[in-house]
Hints:
11 strands, 8 helices
Amino acid sequence: MAQQNIYNNEVFFEGYKKIRDNKINANNLFEIPALFSMMPDLKDKKVLDLGCGFGEHCKRFIDCGAKKVVGIDISEKMLDIAGNENSDPNIVYINMPMEKIVELNEKFDVVVSSLALHYVEDFEELVNDIYNILYTEGVFIFSQENPLCTCHSGGNRWTRDEKGNKIHLNLADYGIEGERESVWFVDNVKKYHRTFSTIINTLINAGFTIEKMIEPLPTDKILEQYPDYKDLLHKPDFLLLKVRK
Length: 245
Ligand SMILES: C[S@@+](CC[C@H](N)C(=O)[O-])C[C@H]1O[C@@H](n2cnc3c(N)ncnc32)[C@H](O)[C@@H]1O
């Protein structure tokens, strides 16, 4: 099935960019620190970034010593920013869906994907492809929306008190995997829900060894500064995994 290229939609793109331009966001506070805490020493390594977006991570991999970084993304609009703001002689940005990485015909020491895998329908095929393009002992590190978020399929996500404060999450349809349509800046944003066990077993069946799993939670210091993030104590927004070939 054809992939949705929602980040190329003008309204979606502008909305998403505004969130990322505001430096106090969940990516900067939780997801990115967790992702980089799992990175191996990148000195002289070849890194592939799946769904690289604005290329900020690609640039950081080079700053960490990587000798070559390939960033791929399905959205030309996202890659335009990557090329303008995060270019480097040792970074190659390629406009292609990650479902086609076998066509790269190249092997890597590290494959990374930050918040893009929940847009992929066939996780099993992608994980097998990633296994095959990694050198032996290579690592695959990724973040995605937490399955407690991707399962949502309509209705209110939260039960609230009479003042509108969130009391607890309404969890439904966790066990029903597959496509979800959500509203985020625009209607009909497609994502794919998979349970924790499907994600973990798909990685194991491909041949990977699980090394680390993180569901980032707010520290007391973050809660003091940004109390709204206490919601994450009910439901983490992100799931991160580090696996090795
Ligand atoms: C939430 S953004 C994350 C961007 C970047 N990884 C970061 O963390 O800043 C998700 C990115 O994945 C890209 N994407 C979604 N589906 C894709 C696919 N099938 N193949 C390649 N890129 C895809 C989108 O175009 C978008 O740039």
